[in-house]
């Protein structure tokens, strides 16, 4: 049996076509459908939130690694410049 949408139920109710019990049954079926959709949405939401949190952690780790590499690169540049200066002074 097909469930009437809320708009269809309102139209039928205004015309006093179905019995109140029938309307109540359809409202209940719609409520169950909405609850299932909401539950599925919440499950998806929490799964996505977990993935986002995991990705944030990975981004933070990568930022720290980039910072460490930048520090190493800066040190290598300074060492290279010092080496070049020492070689120039020897000539």
How is this structure best described in words?
This protein has 91 residues and is mainly α. The chain has one domain. Helices cover 88% and strands 0% of the residues. It is rod-shaped and about 105 Å long. The mean pLDDT is 92.
Shape descriptor: rod-shaped
Distance between the termini: 97 Å
**How many alpha or pi helices?**
2
- Content-based structural category: mainly alpha
User: Mind summarizing the main beta sheet?
Assistant: none
Q: Considering DSSP H and I runs of 4 or more, what fraction of the residues is helical?
A: over 70%
- Domains (count): 1
Which series of helices and strands comes N to C?
HH
Number of distinct beta strands:
0
Uncertain regions spanning at least 5 consecutive residues: none
Give the DSSP E fraction (strand runs of 2 or more residues).
under 5%
**Average pLDDT level:** 92
Keywords:
single chain; 91 residues
Provide a compact summary of the structure.
With about 90 residues, the chain is an all-alpha fold. The protein has helices at about 5-15, 20-90. The chain is rod-shaped, with a radius of gyration of 34 Å.
